Amino acid sequence: MPKILVIEDEAAIRRVLVKILSEESDTYQVEEAEDGLQGVEAIKKEDYDLVLCDIKMPKMDGVEVLEAVKKIKPEIPIVMISGHGDLDTAVNTMRLGAFDYISKPPDLNRLLNTVRIALDRKELVVENKMLKKKVSKNYEMIGASDAINQIKEMIDKVALTDARVLITGPNGTGKELVAHWLHQKSERSKGPLIEVNCAAIPAELIESELFGHVKGAFTSAVKDRAGKFEAANGGTIFLDEIGDMSLSAQAKVLRALQENKIQRVGNDKDIKVDVRVVAATNKNLKKEIEDGNFREDLYHRLAVILIKVPALNDRREDIPLLVEHFSDKIAQEQGTVKKSFSDKAIKLLQEYDWTGNIRELRNVVERLIILGGKEVSEADVKMFASK
Q1: Which residue from 387, 384, 378 is spatially nearest to 346, judged by alpha carbons?
Q2: Whole-number Å distance between alpha carbons of 271 and 256
Q3: Whether residue 232 is found in the same domain as residue 317
Q4: Could you tell me which residues come within 8 angstroms of residue 330 by beta carbon, excluding any fewer than 6 positions away?
Q5: 158 & 299 share domain
Q6: How many CA atoms lie within 13 A of 351 on its CB side?
Q7: What's the whole-model pTM score?
Q8: Would you call the peptide bond into 74 cis, given omega within 30 degrees of 0 as the criterion?
Q9: Which CATH number do you get for residue 375?
Q10: What is the per-residue pLDDT across 258-307, written as a single tens digit (0 to 9) for each?
Q11: DSSP letters along 148-174, please?
Q12: Which of 25, 142, 328, 333 has the smallest count of CB within 10 Å of its CB?
């Protein structure tokens, strides 16, 4: 049942609004507040689907109520109630995030139509947020350790912003999974996620790969070509192993971050881009800065939010969950019956030194499933998972 709060200091107007909404539909639950302060306190305690709020009120006016609600529960649509002299203010509240406004005395049809549309919009917003929070199973972060839970909590806080994120950690720890989670839980999830492995692209080609080029810019440039930044427009670009990027490319990435503009190689025309940048590295970038291999100004542009992914040796308590996950996935991929692991086998795997991290564990689990018995035993682990 949709729950509506009417915030209005004039008792007569408040009673009319409550009466109209209550009589319109048995499905509306209507509550009231006598002033802005009382209304905000009610919103803090209860979940409302819609707020109708007067503009001129004692203690806290409608604009202040709007600003407060947008901070504590931004998903709630707010319809402003304006007197004849408040129309300019009412229009301005739309810029501040109000859904709509209605004039006093309220017109019955306009009021009910606005309420229905606002409630429909609220439902869509909630559905969209729920969908965005559902992360593809292909990129699940498996684990219940404190370290992993902290990363998940940070992702939930950061994903809905456009803040740039720098992900650090050893090879094989799952830095790319963090990038995928950030994108899929963000407002940009409907846009592209473009991945660039900076270490895999030759230094002489990295600028063309990132920013594109025009025909004739270099010997093999036989036609114009858009780069990864343009491809990621409206979405996210993931710069993996950014510590391996050349200094000249770093300078251009810095400009792109500062100005939201790029230039294709061989052209001085600016191209505007709307891209969120997420970067990752297994290197100590502060050490790279000291050695002259990485720009300090670029580091500070990228590292608005720092997420450190721990080595598997630092989260051994997650190994049982990871083994279970990989067993399920490998059985599905190979079309075979899932194999279980004995408690002693799991315990032995937890004692290993996982220098290759999650990637190495996954390979070992697959090997044990192929070569081990019906249930993977401690003996199987000693025989087939040895270093």
Answers
A1: 378
A2: 10
A3: no
A4: 336, 365, 366, 369
A5: yes
A6: 10
A7: 0.65
A8: no
A9: 1.10.8.60
A10: 999 999 999 989 999 999 999 999 999 999 999 999 999 999 999 999 99
A11: HHHHHHHHHHHTTS---EEEE--TTS-
A12: 333
Task: Answer yes or no: are the C-beta atoms of 107 and 74 closer than 8 Å.
Answer: no
Tokens at residue 183, please? 């994108």
The range of the structural domain enclosing residue 77 comes to: 3-132
- Do residue 368 and residue 330 come from a single domain? yes
pLDDT in tens, 122-177: 777 666 555 555 555 567 789 999 999 999 999 999 999 999 999 999 999 999 99
pLDDT of amino acid 105: 84
Residue 176 CB neighbour total at 10 angstroms: 17
Mean pLDDT over each residue of the chain, to the nearest integer: 90
Quote the number of domains for the chain.
Answer: 3
The packing angle between helices 319-334 and 343-351, to 10°, is 110
In this structure, are 252 and 323 located in the same domain?
A: no
Residue from 137, 139, 187, 180 nearest 160 by CA:
187
CB 298 within 8 A of CB 258: no
In the listed set 132, 160, 182, which residue is the last one of a domain according to the structure? 132
Do 300 and 164 have their domain in common?
Answer: yes
* Cα 366 to Cα 316, 343, 345, 361, distances in angstroms: 19, 18, 14, 9
CB 357 within 8 A of CB 311: yes
Q: Which two tokens stand for residue 282?
A: 């297994």
Structure tokens at 124: 């869509």
Q: Which residues are within 8 A (CB) of 372 and not within 5 positions of it... i.e. 6 or more apart?
A: 339, 380, 384
Question: To which H or E segment does residue 7 belong?
Answer: strand 3-7
DSSP codes, 32-91: EESSHHHHHHHHHHS--SEEEEESS-SSS-HHHHHHHHHHH-TTS-EEEEE-GGGHHHHH
Structure tokens at 241: 């192993």
Which residue's structure tokens are 């194999």?
A: 339
Residue 144 structure tokens: 């219940």
What the block records as the tokens of 317 is: 């308590």
